[in-house]
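Exercise (ungraded).
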Amino acid sequence: MKKSILTIITSVILLLVLINVFHKPETQNLKLLKLKEQYSQPKVASVDHSKFEILQKEFKTPQEVTATCISCHNERHKEVMQSSHWNWERISYVEGRGLTSTGKKNVLNNFCIGATGNEQACAKCHIGFGMNNKEFDFSNELNVDCMVCHDNSEEYKKGSALAGYPDRNVNLSKVAQSVGAPKRENCGFCHFTSGGGNNVKHGDLETALLAADLEVDVHMGVNGMDMSCVDCHTANQHQIKGKLYSVSSDNENRAYCEDCHGNLPHFDEMINRHTSRVACQTCHIPEYAKVNATKMEWYWSEAGELKDGKPFTEDDSLGNHTYLSTKGRFVWERNVKPDYMWFNGTADHYILGDQVNSFPVEMNKLFGSHDDPSSKIIPVKIHVGDQIYDPNTKMLIQPKLFSKEKGDSAFWKDFDWHTASEAGMKNIGLEYSGEYEFVKTKMYWPVNHMVSIKEKTVACSECHTQNEEGRLAELTGFYLPGRDRSITVDFFGKFIIIASLLGILLHGLIRIFVVLKKNKYTVQVINEELK
Amino acid sequence: MKKIYIYKGFERFWHWVQATLIIFLALTGFEVHGSFEVFGFESAVKFHRVASYALLLLIAFSIFWHFTTGEWKQYLPTTKKLRSQIRYYISGIFKGDKHPSKKTELSKLNPLQKLVYLGFKIVLIPLVIITGILYLNYKVVDANNIIVISEIPLDAIAVLHTLGAFLLIAFLIVHVYMTTTGHTATSNIKAMLTGYEEIEDDKEEITEVKNEN
């Protein structure tokens, strides 16, 4: 009796222990749940602008709206006028240059090349009114465009080639009464369609993010946290956190995943260890341009072909322009695997007037290296192409592209590179020798958005592999387990293993041979004796 | 033929667990190295780490055992009969000569074994263990307030660890083969399993006994 009770107790204890060992309840990520809770709180505006009497009127000009905003928010415009959104430049320390002012004013790219001289069209993405040449008055507060960022009615849009003025059909009163915190539509108006079309430049910022699902962007997915741009890109006095290294240079005021998630966000210590050298984006953004294609290559050298004296367009099956007489030939791609680079948060750019000394011309340089402890591996989109260059002055040319009329030297109307170069360079006061050619260019765009759900995260073996297709195959100079090895040690190792095997094989065979021979001899002797 | 008890309980347990762990570590380690795919890289890394902790624990116990029982003296190297032992493996074994050294409870290792196992214990195992511990805890950069071991480059640690692994495999191959050179082909393995080993009769001893009769 006693014995059976003891057996039952022991087996029950054993069972409980086994259940404990083999049953693992899913661990709750409390930190993440807390963030989710925090960002699920409904945002309630503290004021309703539609109830303000001062806004109950018909506004004739957009400046009138700005003046009305300033009449209450009487210091805010000064903050805006300190920002790079307004100034199109920012002073920062650049390695090799010292303190430098860089921005859209003086930096070139390998998309539409540059804004200077084409302000009438390019200022569609300037937060001001009336920037139609480089003489724009940056001190006139009435030209600050509050509405492009703060319109909550989805009514507001800037007109095409109106130097930053709103489209003529916009109902300014409706816009003024709707204002509030910026929504995706506000930021997206410029940042989704920069470069002249949806997703042309970034690859990870496009109109699909206005209503994307979790699979496209785990933060912005409307079936998920449904976050807006300014949830991460927070602002203090209109200085917005986060920057893009197509124009920015320094490591200040950046927006990091770590700001919310911390720098040790995983349960697995081994994975946490990666965060010191690998940026979050590297593993969590396995691909970009998940919905619509992005431009990967842009060849200006082919621009200017005409059919019957008229410019023409060629499209691919998805409706992306593959050729435009005005801009040249393009290559688009979807679901692109990023390239990877070491990056320490500082960058240099091709600034108007710089002399080129290596090809392909790097429109921007991202600084960083495996032996620099402040560098991390980040994913980038690399946009390549060719563009116009003066072989005598060794400068990239800022051509005059846009004009409303023919005969104004603008390439998009006259299709003459020579006059466009002459007019464009004269406008900025730089020399043009009269000769031009097209040189290869390269530009790096860090990929930060379209973060995937965790199930789609890059797997260990996609980097830790000897496969030449491995994601980090081209990022050499440091030891990556699984990818790198000492050829000498591997050779020696294989050699001693093979030598050992051959050695024992030989030794063993001789032993077997000797034994067989001896047995035969013994058998013979026995047989002799039996006779 | 007679049987003697030469491998004690803990020794046999230690030997087989260590053998299993080393083979498992080689399997997962060479997968991490990129030599083949069995478990998948991520699992291989996890298994390798868990097994390495197990091996460290086992080695800690075995060091304790060696010193408390005095068994460590078995590994003191000697040059006596070393040459004849080597000569035996090179030629004597084929002629059917007798083992030059006699196995007893007090001296279970022949001079060549003493030397090889001592090398195994104080060179090979420490090489993989020390590089392994450094690899296990290798952390770089203090940008995230993480402990830094960046003074020693990772490639040096990893390459030495790999070298140790290759040497261990070569050791394993030869070691397993050498077990067949006992009194019979399986007598050594049986001994490591049961503790008792069959050894060659000492004919002189027997004749002496006969004479007494």
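Further reading is listed at the end of the chapter. For now, observe: The first helix of chain B runs from residue 9 to 33. Residues 2-212 of chain B form a domain with the Fumarate Reductase Cytochrome B subunit fold (CATH 1.20.950.20).
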